[in-house]
Specification:
Number of domains: 2
CATH class of the largest domain: Alpha Beta
Structural class: alpha+beta
CATH topology of the largest domain: Beta-Lactamase
Order of helices and strands: HEHHEEHHEEEHHHEEEH
Distance between the termini: 25 Å
Number of strands: 9
CATH superfamily of the largest domain: GAF domain
Number of helices: 9
Strand content: 15-25%
């Protein structure tokens, strides 16, 4: 969330010239918020030690601004939905999907790669969300695209986390449109490595000159979602450890989205 958290009251510097009306208005709002039921003017005045005339004028102003409600039958005051409207930008900034999207886009931009959220869909994986870098040459994917579940770095994770028979593994491997098919026994060893490390890796077997790295969103149980990065092979190679660390950070935020890690 892009909000600056307030300091505890005891750590805040003293104000040179506090505005009494503002302080009293905030005190009234906090008073109303502390109680589950609306309060009478007399109750607010007694609790805060305010002048009744001052408190009444502040309450009338807060009501006019939509921050306080008044039940005219009982003469009781309560908080109004206008406060929620004021807080809406902060609450929206703390939305799990927004946090994830920001992290996804920042990861793509700062790593110079394409980063995507994929969802397991039967014997395929489907692209749910993607972020690209701003490089002139970059890898592009279309949301909604489906690929065989054993393809590339993602496929090694799916195979590692699934309860597949040897026959199902071999059949799934055969359905992948490899550009440069890996040796099957070597692929099985890479599946085992993915199971151990929690990271899938493909070097040019799906697309020549392209590296794929994938990490799971769900750290335990069935694997339903994957964060994967695709990048061009360059001289000296990418910093795989740094990319994996960043992808795991993005995956942790994806797991906080309602419905994602429990689909």
């Amino acid at each position: 969330m892009n909000a600056i958290r307030p300091l505890p009251r005891e750590d805040r510097p003293a104000l040179a010239k506090p505005v009494g009306a503002v302080t009293s208005a905030v005190g009234i709002l906090r008073c109303l918020g502390r109680h589950p039921d609306p309060r009478r003017l007399s109750e607010v005045v007694r609790e805060l030690g305010l002048n009744p005339s001052t408190a009444l004028n502040i309450l009338r102003t807060l009501e006019h601004e939509g921050l306080v409600t008044l039940d005219r039958d009982t003469r009781r005051y309560g908080l109004a939905h206008g406060l929620a409207n004021l807080a809406a930008p902060l609450l929206a900034g703390d939305d799990p999907r927004r946090r994830f999207t920001r992290a996804l886009e920042a990861g793509a931009a700062e790593l110079g790669v394409t980063v995507a959220l994929w969802r397991r869909a039967g014997d395929e994986v489907e692209l749910e969300q993607v972020a690209e870098s701003d490089a002139a040459m970059r890898i592009a994917f279309t949301v909604g695209r489906r690929l065989p579940m054993f393809l590339g770095a993602m496929g090694r994770l799916v195979a590692a986390r699934g309860d597949f028979t040897p026959q199902a593994l071999r059949a799934g491997f055969a359905r992948v449109p490899w550009a440069s098919p890996p040796d099957y026994d070597r692929w099985l060893a890479e599946v085992a490595a993915a199971r151990e490390a929690g990271v899938g890796l493909d070097r040019g077997h799906v697309n020549r000159g392209v590296i794929g790295i994938a990490v799971p969103v769900e750290t335990h149980g069935p694997l339903n979602h994957i964060i994967a990065a695709a990048m061009f092979e360059v001289e000296g190679g990418p910093d795989l450890a740094a990319i994996v660390h960043r992808l795991k950070t993005v995956a942790a935020l994806a797991a906080e989205i309602p419905g994602v890690s429990h689909a």
